[in-house]
Amino acid sequence: MKNVKIGFLPLYIQLYDDFASGLRPGVEAYCQSVKEALVKGGAELVAADICRVKSEFEAAVSLFEREDVEAIVTLHLAYSPSLESTSVIASTSLPVIILDTTRDFCFDFEVKKGSTSYNHGIHGVQDFCNLLKRLGKDYSIFAGHYLNSDVVKRVLDAARAVKAARAISKMKVGTLGGAFDGMGDFCISDETKARLGVEVNRCSGEKILEIKKSVTDEAVRREYEADCKDNGCNIPYEMYAEHIRSSIAIRELIKKEGYTAFTMNFRRAGSEVGFDTVPFAEACKLMASGIGYAGEGDAINAALVGALMSSFDEVNFVEMFCPDWKNNTIYFNHMGECNASLMENRHMMTKYFAYGDVDHPVYMLGHMKAGQGCVLNMLPNAEGWFDVVIVEGEFMQLPEKLESFPETINGWFKPKTDVCSLLEKYSEAGGTHHSSFVYGVNARSLSLFAKSLGMKCTVI
User: Fold this and answer.
1) Beta carbons of 28 and 49 less than 8 angstroms apart
2) What is the pLDDT of residue 187?
3) Residues with Cβ < 8 Å from 19, sequence gap 6 or more?
4) CB-CB contact of 356 with 424 (8 Å)
5) In this model, does residue 182 exceed pLDDT 90?
6) CA triplet 184, 337, 370: central angle to 5 degrees?
7) Helix (H, G, I), strand (E, B) or coil at 424
């Protein structure tokens, strides 16, 4: 679970301290319990004191800005008059995420006398949100009981999405072999690239060759033994060694140059200096180590995957391939690139490569891990910026062996909606053929990635 740094802002009312001070210990205990739940969920907490009046809110926001938190997470401990806080909140550039919860899970006919004072925070939330809306301050809100629902996870995932949005402008992408000729959906102008902030660099083939010379037989042997142990590798060492030597050299170049993401165009393999094999297995390993990746020279989606990896534990590069109309699923596949940590039935092999002048590359193959999550697609638009499409669903659990797909990377995705509607809406929005998949997150939380970057977001 990746931590995310948030500013925790508890809101209260001076009136209660002045005329009902006996409430304060119970309110503080409730506040502490929420803080503990946030920390348990992965929050690196910068916590303000309980705020009641404008000067206290000003001090809290100043603290959050100095600490450079990803977002402010608010908690109404009771009703809090909006004019004390909203002008201060509206003036900060920090995103605001509202945790709309209460102390008690059940508030029914038999609730304990006096419980109203500890459970009417939603009353203040409504005042607060109305004023923020009128002041033009964007915010996101997540409701539910903090101990008996997933609301804390949704709040923190929203903050993680903000963190990923901030991270994309810091991505440094290494490209090998340029971009696939004729693929237009991930082509963007230099102006758009600069606006996004992604740095793209061509990997030096000469540097790869130089590093390759320094890769020892001992290092190759260690890699081989680790792959045999961990990745089901039964390739004869003689067939394995030279390919993996080149892969290790590419890995070392990425580390040396400080790249946080990587992409390659397999069509240029064998025709460029240093690109003497297609490092399919290495792409799988790089993703597992937290390096972003996308195929065919798609630097922008490689940066997207890398940015999401900086915030979320389980992220993969994915492509939709074939619809199964009958069973309402879509087959996801790629030639040989999949996050190794998210592959089931993982195994390594060599096989014939028809698209370049190289010997049989080393592949890591298997099934995409089963689990719920979201496809996130970031697509260039006509205005020189990006839109986002998010698709909710799950990758299905597959049998250990698939007779029709013995030597591939396989995933069958079942969307929440029907496949016909998904494909129509996806392409109406302009979704591209390269995407990311984030496990264990819902669309409302993940949509803050788009919101933070001023991107239109379509949820399917």
Assistant:
1) no
2) 85
3) none
4) no
5) no
6) 110
7) helix
Q: Name the packing angle between helices 237-257 and 217-230 (round to 10°).
A: 100
Q: What is the fold, at CATH topology level, of the domain defined by 4-149?
A: Rossmann fold (3.40.50)
| Encoded tokens for 288 | 């597992």
* Backbone CA torsion sign across 162, 34, 122, 53: negative
pLDDT for 17-65, tens place per residue?
A: 999 999 999 999 999 999 999 999 999 999 999 999 999 999 999 999 9
Choices 3.30.1360, 3.30.1490, 3.40.50, 3.20.14: CATH for 172-459: 3.20.14
Q: Which residues touch 42 (CB under 8 Å, ≥6 apart)? A: 1, 2, 3, 4, 156
Torsion angle of the four alpha carbons 286, 292, 295, 296, in this order, in degrees rounded to the nearest 10: -110
Which candidate, 311, 330, 361, 351, places its Cα nearest to that of 423? 330
Q: Where are the alpha helices (DSSP H) in 310-441?
A: 419-428
User: 118: helix, coil or strand?
Assistant: helix
- The per-residue b/e assignment along 296-312, b for 16 or more CB within 10 angstroms, e otherwise, is bbbbbbbbbbbbbbbbb
Task: Tell me the pLDDT band of 178, cut-offs 50, 70 and 90.
Answer: confident
And the tokens for 137?
A: 């301050």
The residue type found at 205 is G
Domain ranges of the chain: 4-149, 172-459
Tokens of 446: 């993940």
Give the C-alpha separation, 151 to 62, whole Å: 27
Q: Tokens representing 289? A: 């180590």
Contact 245, 277 (CB under 8 A): no
Closest CA relative to residue 277, chosen from 268, 289, 285: 268
d(CA 147, CA 347): 41
The answer to whether residues 69 and 38 touch, using CB atoms and an 8 Å cutoff, is no
- Identify whether the C-beta of residue 166 lies closer than 8 Å to the C-beta of residue 449: no
In this prediction the pTM is 0.95
